[in-house]
Amino acid sequence: MLSSIRQFFRGPSLAVAIGSAALCAGAISAHAAEGAETSIAIKDHKFDPAQVKVSAGTPIRLTVNNLDATAEEFESKSLQVEKVIAGKGTAIIRLKPLAKGTYPFVGEYHEETAKGVLVAE
Fold this sequence. Notes:
25% of the residues lie in helices and 42% in strands. The protein has 121 residues and is an alpha+beta fold. It has two domains: 2-33; 35-120, Immunoglobulin-like (Sandwich), CATH 2.60.40.420. The chain has a five-stranded mixed sheet, with no helix packed on it. A four-stranded mixed sheet has the order 2-1-4-7, with no helix packed on it. 17% of the residues are buried.
């Protein structure tokens, strides 16, 4: 019995076992690197919701859906992001893990109405 187990883990079977383990480990770390997902919309030149809460210390995938017919630029100096989003378009903004705090953002083309804040807790 022991010799058949040793035989199994020689040659191609060992390579397949090691390769499978490496793929699983890669998938786990890729999933962990993705972090949290959240989304906001732009409608009538306003962000909805205007306040977004996220977990501090976790990468964030922020999806911004522009429901207006005109383009808008998502801008945040504190997040170091500038992204133009076409009318009726969508953008994905990937943010590194954030320290606890408040991170304001605006729609640069309509700053008087398009204001929001991301709160990392």
